[in-house]
Design goal:
This protein has 4 helices and 13 strands. The protein has about 250 residues and is α+β, with helices and mostly antiparallel strands. About 10% of the residues have low confidence.
């Protein structure tokens, strides 16, 4: 009889721990939403413009680059320089991966040409790399492991809650690996860990306009080439369609 009571006590205690872990997990996602200004701010934003330097995937597209996107339908406009100091403008759709037009030094080129195909593929891969960082709070809310318990830890004297992310990618169809993030008491993501080969610290959030706040500075202590900063991030409710159709 005594043993039965002890077993019941253990079961009830385990259930309580599970409930506490679930409550902590739910709370973390709410805090991440609040840190970006609220879910409605994200949903109300259709257009985003950003410029970014660093974390270049390939030396053939060095330096600063910019993207203008319509996140409601996937239209995007890229502008940057190649390693020949030529200006590249690429109009594409990041959802369908369809290519509309490509311009090099303001002259339209055939996207199907082998040399231009390489540029197109590189721009698209760079874009995914960039938005997975810039939109990291959004993808953590979408793909964070809701069933895993939140792990509190002290790092360099600061308190964080570590959360597992099942798929660290903004686009559902994008192939990606698992990761984890460290969230501070304000709900801001401060560390992104994607395995032994990539970990960055997040040191800055900015208001993109209208109250939407996104992380913009990412630093790697072990691989400085993976560090990057979004020097400009601006959100809009309306932009002329020709920005995604013409030079």
């Amino acid at each position: 009889m005594l043993k039965t009571k002890q077993n019941i006590t253990v079961i009830l205690f385990m259930l309580l721990l599970c409930q506490m872990g679930w409550a902590q997990s739910e709370s973390i996602f709410s805090e991440i939403e609040e840190a970006i200004g609220g879910k409605d701010k994200w949903e109300q934003t259709d257009y985003l413009y950003f410029t970014v330097s660093g974390n270049n995937r390939d030396d053939s597209l060095p330096g600063k680059r910019s993207f203008l996107i319509n996140k409601s339908n996937g239209d995007a406009r890229f502008k940057g320089m190649n390693d020949k100091s030529e200006e590249i403008v690429l109009l594409f759709n990041f959802v369908t991966q369809g290519i509309k037009r490509i311009f090099i030094n303001e002259e339209e080129k055939e996207a199907s040409e082998e040399e231009n195909q390489a540029v197109v593929e590189l721009v698209q891969k760079q874009f995914l790399e960039d938005i997975n960082l810039l939109f990291s709070p959004i993808l953590v809310i979408a793909h964070g492991d809701k069933n895993a318990s939140v792990q509190p830890k002290i790092v360099n004297g600061e308190k964080f809650s570590f959360l597992e992310v099942e798929k660290f990618s903004y686009l559902p169809e994008q192939k990606s690996r698992r990761g984890s993030v460290a969230v501070d008491p304000e709900g801001k993501i401060r560390i992104i860990n994607l395995g032994s080969d990539k970990e960055v610290t997040v040191s800055k959030y900015v208001d993109t306009g209208g109250g939407l706040k996104l992380p913009t500075r990412f630093d790697s202590q072990t691989k400085p080439s993976q560090s990057c900063e979004f020097s400009t991030v601006a959100s809009f409710t309306d932009i002329q369609d020709k920005k995604f159709e013409e030079l």
